[in-house]
Amino acid sequence: MVGLKWEPKVAGFGCSSKATDPSLRPNSELVDGLFVPPSDPKKVNKMLKKQLKDTAGMNWFDMGAPTVTAELKMDLELLKLRSVMDPKRHYKKTHFKSKSLPKYFQVGTVIEPATEFYTSRLTNKERKPRFAHELLSDASLAQYRKRKVREIEDKNRPAGVDKWKIRGQSSRQRAKNRRH
């Protein structure tokens, strides 16, 4: 191995050029292909903050903030309105009072234990990919929605003879013609 020689390009180890001096080189330059952090502590702290992942913290096992898609947003809004969907269930007031969605959350799948195989298990036909699809396919919820819509329509419909009257200019002319 005649003629091969390696020298580190750090000041004080043989190469004394100004380009390798750490105080004179730009921040983005690499030394021997390795990244050397800046000497300014403020810049170091800024770089470390950028590298930290956006998590809920150690107490929440570093749960990350998920990317919110349209489907996920719809599911979260339906969860906000869950107290309206079922008249028999009453839920505690949630922290969803604000219009914004929570920053940190996770979506999971409920797996039933083997003991509930015959009692409260969903069949494959009843399983849907999204929470909204499950609600729309639920027969008892559809019946409840129809009944509530009918009640609201009955309440807003005029009562007695008024429901047969057609209001407007033409009704006045018909009344005039009936008198003569």
UniProtKB/TrEMBL annotation:
Keywords attached to this entry: Nucleus
InterPro entries found in the cross-reference section: Fcf2/DNTTIP2 (IPR039883), Fcf2_C (IPR014810)
Intracellular or extracellular location(s): Nucleus, Nucleolus
The UniProt record lists the keyword Nucleus: yes
Biological processes, Gene Ontology terms: RNA processing
Top-rank taxon, per record: Eukaryota
Compositional bias (Basic and acidic residues): 152-165
Subcellular location, principal: nucleus
Protein name, entry field: Fcf2 pre-rRNA processing C-terminal domain-containing protein
Organism, as annotated: Lithospermum erythrorhizon (Purple gromwell)
